[in-house]
Amino acid sequence: MITQPYHLYIERSDPTKNMARFYAMSIHPNLFGEACLTRCWGRIGTTGQIMSHHFETEREAVVLFLDLLRQKKRRGYAAAIRHSRNDS
Hints:
By secondary structure, the protein is α+β, with helices and mostly antiparallel strands.
């Protein structure tokens, strides 16, 4: 059972290199009650690619979640401010 929600959305942009990437992760239970870490990444504005990892415990999933977060932060990804369509 997952004790708390885990969701992350970060971006890396560099207009001089025409780079606009996103990376998203979440941990949620699968149908069998196991922890599932789902990752999605790609160019901003596209669907991107998706990969899922299944673990017996939430702790195992959190370890990978935090490790991937550290890797992305070292590569220059940062939290993105997402605006709703109703913002002016």
